[in-house]
Amino acid sequence: MFALNVTPEYGDLLTDHSYSYVVLTAVGTCFLGTCTICSSFRKAAGLGYPTPYADSAQMSAASAEQKQKLYLFNCAQRAHGNFLENHYMALTTLLIGGLRYPLLSSAFGLVWSLGRIVYAVGYTAQNKENGKGRLAGAFFWLAQLGLFVNAGLTGYNLAF
User: Fold this and answer.
1) Which residues form a coiled coil (predicted)?
2) CA distance 62 to 65
């Protein structure tokens, strides 16, 4: 059996509904849809599963129009991959930081989620070269930093 003993200054997680915002934000991060973006670009590029990226041979053999579709698929895959690389850290720090600062953690989590959507959509923008559209969503890094600091402060407060 597992028991979590929460000191009084952290409140009762079962009766204080503020941690529910953290849980809802955490669950919401799982439905951001970066995999759906990949699917639409995969279909447009005509690449079947399990091809993870269009390779250089496919790119060089493609027409200019098809090359653009393959390129955008690769951008969508990279945006999704970057989401996966960062999601576990954001989720972990969101849940830990929410123990002490639930509303702040939830706010950082919402900003992080919005940034991830803007990042993915920008990465696949046809009018931006070299995936530069992703920079519009780079503010997710600030939210992620906030989540890290928030979780660190929670750990510090638990220890001291």
Assistant:
1) none
2) 8
